[in-house]
Design a protein that fits this description.
Helices cover 0% and strands 57% of the residues. With 119 residues, the protein is mainly β. The chain is elongated. The termini are far apart.
């Protein structure tokens, strides 16, 4: 079994900062890319940022320059600065994981953590 457990969401004022964490645990042989997605009410889930095993990061245009993704072993982080009300959403962690030799990489998701930006 594989689990992705997120933490760090909450309520913050516009212009503030939050740091999200997501730890992958369980039967894991290797992890490929990891990332963060978000979904606001009435909207589809959208990519926020991804990071490869080599540390190459990719960002959505709406967050580039404000958010920073990083990873250490089986944990991925999202540092969010200069937050705006439009960043309000449920944030989901994603990881592309190989659980054992002979299987294939597949995507796993966390349960989501709420981020609310409001004064």
């Amino acid at each position: 079994q594989v689990q992705l457990v997120e933490s760090g969401g909450g309520l913050v004022q516009p212009g503030g900062s939050l740091r999200l964490s997501c730890a992958a645990s369980g039967t894991i042989f290797n992890i490929n890319a990891m990332g963060w997605y978000r979904q606001a009410p009435g909207n589809q889930r959208e990519l926020v940022a991804t990071i490869t095993t080599g540390g190459s990061a990719n960002y959505a245009g709406s967050v580039r320059g404000r958010f920073t993704i990083s990873r250490a072993k089986n944990t991925v982080y999202l540092q969010m600065n200069s937050l705006k009300p439009e960043d309000t959403a449920v944030y989901y962690c994603n990881a592309n994981i190989l659980i054992r030799i002979g299987t294939t990489f597949r995507d796993y998701w966390g349960q989501g953590t709420q981020v609310t930006v409001s004064s």
